[in-house]
Design a protein that fits this description.
182 residues; mainly alpha; flat
């Protein structure tokens, strides 16, 4: 029996009941298919790369994500923290202005190292040694003098460049006054 044999009164558009969720899903699929055919999804960042969903398998994924997003870092074992402090100490000392500040900072670092040596080890072994206070202060003073000399040399170069520019402008003005504008 062909479709033409069925009377048109048999098709009632109001006779079908559509689930709104199904309709929305069908419309979304149709739009995604049209966008894919147009090429709207071509050359997107991360195309062809797998999604990283490893965090979401863990029941505490939201807590770990929150801690990572907020920049929380758990405390390191004392031996590793002292290694990091030792590596960053010269940079911290270079921001200080007086020998007493530098000496106080190095003595504080040495006290933390000695205190860690007397505690029970938690983590890797402690290999950081206390620093020689006087040698560290002298090294700081030498770095400070070198930075000061470098700054003075840059200032001299800048001053010489400005003076040369001023001389050039004055001689150009004198030439214009003597020979007129051309």
């Amino acid at each position: 029996m062909a479709d033409r044999d069925i009377p048109s009164s048999f098709y009632n558009p109001h006779a079908f009941v559509f689930d709104p969720e199904v309709v929305i899903a069908l419309m979304a699929d149709a739009r995604i298919r049209q966008a894919t055919e147009r090429g709207d999804f071509d050359n997107l960042p991360g195309a062809g790369k797998p999604l990283d969903l490893t965090l979401y398998d863990d029941p505490d994924w939201w807590l770990k994500n929150l801690l990572r997003r907020e920049g929380f870092r758990p405390p390191l074992p004392p031996s590793i923290q002292l290694r990091k402090d030792d590596a960053a100490l010269d940079g911290e000392l270079d921001r200080m202005f007086s020998r007493t500040e530098v000496r106080r900072e190095v003595e504080g670092f040495n006290e933390r190292v000695i205190r860690a040596r007397y505690e029970l080890p938690s983590g890797p072994p402690l290999i950081t040694m206390p620093r020689d206070v006087e040698a560290t202060v002298e090294a700081w003073a030498e770095r400070k003098a070198a930075r000061l000399e470098e700054a003075r040399a840059r200032e001299r170069e800048e001053r010489d460049r400005r003076e040369e520019e001023l001389r050039r402008r004055r001689s150009a003005r004198r030439r214009r006054l003597w020979f007129g504008r051309r």
